[in-house]
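Design a sequence for this backbone.
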């Protein structure tokens, strides 16, 4: 992997700091003002050209690079490096007019019209051909430009066009299926097509799973999700191949959209094709009880996608966004603390959408580093303050983060659990993982979030590094993942598996003989029947704990210790929480119901205590603690008080936020510290 941060920003020591920069929206005199303000803010990296295809190629095969030449020259003269976009995120009007078949079709068979962004079909040969011509021209033009630091392929691939149901996409899907299964009988077996008379005699009979009369075949839907992720990855790789051929020494990235709910692209697998993992993250108010806890989880997941290596925060917001029902502005100090939360979790750069707030267009009310009010504003003064801090934090560039506890997640499992016919639509893969992460964070233990797809062939090795492995609601679990979890337990990792895990294989076929099939032998627990609970219904356990959401009729083997059982209802007397000691010296725990955060913390503390997992630091109060370590032994403790009460932390060193020597921290609500320890 090319280390994009090595030697970056010659003469500078700070972390990368900047934004998407869209100078084409502004007259030349504003662009000149931008260069002055970037210097004032300490900006050293901007992404340029993301949505400029229509200006760079105003008609087929006629390119106009003059304005972009001037922009890159001015940025370089000001000491600002460029992440140059391939400009392929949105097709120009002439492409949609001349080749309307390149526009995507939705599940109902309706072709979209031009007038937004990402309207193109990921399988379109016309789009692929035209986009690669643009990439070739850009790479040839700017291969030797001194401002070029990084290539930025497209933008948020799949954000608005994750699936297309046109005839071209359907044909591509059939080719993908042929490659996956080899022959149609293997597909029939995988899809269980004997049910509802869905048997196929040739791949040509298979369609994309658009609108149907009732429930779709679940494995067909899952395979279409896999295909769609691969199809968009194919576009990324095609652009990357052109860039690699012309500029072999310039790293290539594309900005992911990693959030807790695991969107339609399998970023674990995508990350294997990146020179540097980049991510966009925005707080989503109303969707989460704790939006900043979701930020922390997503940042830890981004680091997991990056295999523990430093990554780049390509976009977040200085304040409000423009696409939520109510766009909440950030209070003073939150932008800095949100940025530090990403840096604490491995980001070696902090960038925003966008540099200057647009005066018109669909995102005119999205905040920016330079707001509508201009430089004479509290928001811009905060930007300048953040830039100075990130410059001081440059010493930790390249350092990494590890915890004693790992949470195992899987994009394809999340897709499977979004199906139409599961035992309960109240259970989603990401919900419990997010809760567990939050409880561990509040207990100052922290956790790495490890995606299955990021470690093909060596998942067992990765999982065995941890003292504790939590496997939450891993409904879909293929044989390789099951074997990796078992191998980690046999190597001494303590494992906690929760309800609705290990139920189906990679083709969504139920693992027969009793649930949780993939982990039944490891846990010594056999579930005969699920008893999911309706909204508002709870079930008391015999230890006084109350479960909701999920219960089960289950039995435990003789060598399994039953720590809690259901005390009422159809599952009365059945085990709800168990522990089994393993020959390796580790233990295998099973939690068969959903408990509140207090009870969940007790369970997690018991598992961590058995495994010898240690807190990040001794602390009291609502403080978020993360430690980054360098290969030479240096370490930096991030302490972020997100709560409404004071917090204390036991640490010694120099606080790079205040510049003061510290022997213990007293953090007021909203305060942050980054302590160089020692």
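Sequence:
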């Amino acid at each position: 992997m090319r280390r994009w941060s090595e030697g970056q920003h010659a003469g500078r020591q700070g972390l990368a700091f900047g934004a998407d920069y869209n100078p084409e929206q502004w007259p030349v005199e504003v662009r000149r003002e931008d260069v002055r303000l970037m210097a004032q803010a300490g900006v050293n990296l901007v992404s340029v050209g993301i949505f400029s295809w229509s200006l760079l190629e105003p008609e087929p095969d006629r390119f106009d690079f003059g304005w972009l030449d001037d922009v890159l020259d001015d940025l370089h003269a000001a000491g600002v490096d460029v992440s140059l976009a391939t400009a392929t995120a949105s097709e120009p009007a002439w492409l949609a007019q001349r080749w309307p078949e390149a526009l995507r079709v939705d599940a109902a068979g309706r072709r979209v019209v031009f007038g937004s962004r990402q309207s193109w079909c990921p399988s379109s040969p016309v789009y692929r051909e035209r986009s690669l011509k643009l990439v070739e021209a850009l790479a040839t033009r700017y291969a030797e430009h001194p401002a070029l630091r990084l290539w930025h392929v497209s933008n948020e691939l799949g954000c608005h066009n994750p699936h297309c149901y046109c005839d071209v996409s359907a044909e591509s899907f059939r080719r993908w299926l042929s490659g996956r299964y080899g022959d149609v009988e293997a597909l029939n077996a995988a899809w269980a097509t004997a049910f509802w008379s869905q048997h196929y005699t040739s791949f040509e009979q298979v369609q994309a799973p658009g609108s149907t009369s009732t429930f779709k075949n679940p494995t067909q839907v899952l395979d279409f999700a896999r295909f769609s992720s691969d199809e968009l990855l194919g576009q990324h790789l095609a652009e990357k191949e052109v860039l690699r051929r012309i500029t072999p020494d310039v790293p290539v990235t594309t900005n992911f959209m990693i959030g807790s709910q695991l969107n339609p692209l399998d970023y674990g697998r995508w990350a294997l094709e990146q020179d540097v993992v980049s991510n966009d993250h925005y707080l989503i108010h109303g969707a989460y009880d704790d939006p900043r806890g979701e930020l922390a989880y997503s940042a830890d997941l981004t680091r997991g996608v990056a295999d523990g290596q430093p990554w780049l925060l390509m976009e977040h917001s200085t304040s409000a966004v423009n696409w939520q029902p109510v766009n909440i502005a950030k209070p003073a100090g939150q932008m800095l603390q949100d940025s530090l939360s990403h840096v604490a979790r491995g980001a070696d750069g902090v960038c925003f959408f966008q540099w200057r707030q647009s005066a018109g267009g669909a995102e005119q009310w999205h905040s920016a580093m330079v707001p509508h009010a201009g430089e004479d504003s509290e928001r811009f003064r905060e930007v300048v303050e953040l830039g100075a801090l990130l410059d001081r934090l440059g010493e930790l560039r390249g350092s990494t983060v590890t915890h004693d506890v790992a949470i195992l997640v899987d994009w394809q499992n999340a897709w499977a659990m979004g199906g139409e016919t599961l035992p309960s639509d109240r259970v989603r893969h990401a919900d419990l993982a997010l809760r567990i992460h939050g409880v561990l964070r509040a207990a100052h233990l922290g956790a790495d979030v490890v995606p299955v797809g990021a470690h093909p062939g060596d998942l067992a090795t990765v999982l065995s590094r941890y003292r504790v492995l939590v496997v939450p609601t891993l409904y879909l679990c293929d044989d390789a993942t099951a074997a990796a979890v078992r191998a980690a337990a046999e190597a001494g990792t303590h494992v906690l598996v929760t309800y609705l895990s290990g139920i189906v294989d990679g083709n969504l076929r139920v693992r027969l003989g009793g649930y949780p099939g993939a982990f039944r032998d490891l846990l010594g627990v056999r579930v005969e029947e699920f008893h999911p609970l309706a909204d508002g219904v709870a079930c008391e356990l015999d230890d006084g704990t109350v479960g909701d959401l999920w219960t089960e009729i289950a039995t435990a083997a003789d060598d399994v210790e039953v720590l809690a059982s259901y005390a009422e209802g159809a599952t009365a007397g059945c085990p709800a929480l168990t522990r089994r000691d393993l020959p390796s010296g580790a233990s295998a725990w099973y939690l068969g119901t959903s408990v509140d955060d207090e009870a969940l913390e007790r369970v997690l503390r018991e598992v961590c205590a058995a495994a010898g997992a240690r807190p990040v630091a001794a602390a009291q109060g609502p403080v978020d603690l993360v430690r980054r370590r360098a290969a030479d032994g240096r370490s930096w403790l991030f302490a972020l008080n997100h709560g409404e009460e004071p917090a204390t932390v036991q640490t010694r060193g120099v606080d790079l936020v205040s510049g003061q020597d510290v022997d213990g921290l007293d953090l007021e609500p909203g305060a942050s510290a980054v302590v160089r320890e020692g």
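The CA atoms of residues 2 and 275 lie 5 Å apart.
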